[in-house]
Structure formats: structure tokens, C-alpha cells
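Something for you to look into today, if you have time. Just paste the record in under my message, thanks.
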Amino acid sequence: MYAIVKTGGKQYKVSPGDILSIEKLDAAVGDEVELPVICVVDGENIEADPAKAGETVVTALVIDQYKGKKQLVFKFKKRKGYKKLRGHRQQLTKVQIIAVGGEVFPEEKRVWLTRPEKVEAVAEAEDVAEPEEEKSIEELAEDLAGAAEVVEEAAEKADEE
């Protein structure tokens, strides 16, 4: 199943799991956004009427907000000594399509969940950091003794080689 969505003045063919770079959306990393649908194809039926296709919901997960490659804009008028060079970097949003209609992409395969630095960034932005469990002195001593044994075993193996 796939759909044609329209965002940023462009149209994209999307199916669950696709990763797209689209023009900037006002959404934070980790937010889910709905994209407007203009056509839906489910393998057997094609719904090309935008009014009926608009009933289908396409949900995307915002993975990243970034700037695209620099585009150089060079203005020149011959024999006038007029030259201007300017650069432009488009603001972009990277999204992963997580649902098209009733077809949902598995949560364990979603990209941002496999990138811990993004998860940490979202947690810091929301101030929802998980508190660390406090260990007693005995537990810390046991952990230290276990680590010392592992280091000694590794040193013995290195000496044998």
C-alpha cells in the first residue's frame, strides 16, 4: 500500500517505513505529524479523488531538523562589472512514514528509536531524564571486585599469549 502526499508544494510517493527529506515542518524531533493525502493505492484499488483519499491518514515521525546542502546563486551582467555570489541552505525535516491508512510500520524498526543520541536529545528537551538507581556501598564494592577479577583474567591471558 502506498499514498501520494503533498507537503511543501511538492508531492511524494510514500509507504510505511520510507524516510523522506521534506521542507521544514513546525514539529520537534520525536513528534508525529499527519501529512495531507491526494491519492491512495492499496494494490487493488486506486483512489485518486483527493476528497476521498483525504480520509486516509498518513502519519510520519520527525527524525531530524537540519539544513540542506548549500545552493550557490550567482548573478552576472556581462560588460557591466556586475557580479554577486550568494548562498542558500534550505531548512529541511527528515521524517519516517510510520502509517499509511491501516498499514503500520513496526515500532522496533523505526529509525529514531535505534539512535540513542536522538532519544537523549528528546529527553533533555522535555526534561524527562530517568533517575539513576542509587547503589549501596556493598553493591559498589561487589561491582568493583568483579571488575578487578575480569581485569586480572585478561592480564593472565595476555601474558600467556
